[in-house]
Amino acid sequence: MSIPQVPVTDVHDQAVVLDVREQDEWDAGHAPGAVHIPLAELPSRLDELPDTDAAALAVVCRSGGRSSRAVAWLSQQGFDVTNLAGGMRAWQGAGKPLVADAGAGSATVK
């Protein structure tokens, strides 16, 4: 199965993305407006997936491995999803905004 990919440059800075990283990674820095559902919790939290209407939902992790697995599984469930190529490392490398949860210090991809 081919995993659909979207380059980070094609994702708007404020786009809703699904972040499947672990809590500590999320706390360190994430895309503004992202929805956080760790990969292991995804099957039980499908009702929390954001509705993007116009475009496929971009799924992201640190570098693309976990999000690729999430995209493959979600696609089989009938969801319109795509993998954010290069993950949050590519997001940060492209100079896109990051926010950190209170008390986590400066935002950085972990």
Automatic annotation (TrEMBL):
Gene Ontology molecular function: any one: transferase activity
PANTHER family, per database record: FAD-DEPENDENT OXIDOREDUCTASE, PYRIDINE NUCLEOTIDE-DISULPHIDE OXIDOREDUCTASE
Source species, domain of life: Bacteria
This protein's record includes keyword Transferase: yes
CDD domains the record matches: RHOD
Native source organism of the sequence: Pedococcus dokdonensis
Domain Rhodanese: 11-100
Keywords recorded for this protein, A-Z: Transferase
Official protein name in the record: Rhodanese-related sulfurtransferase
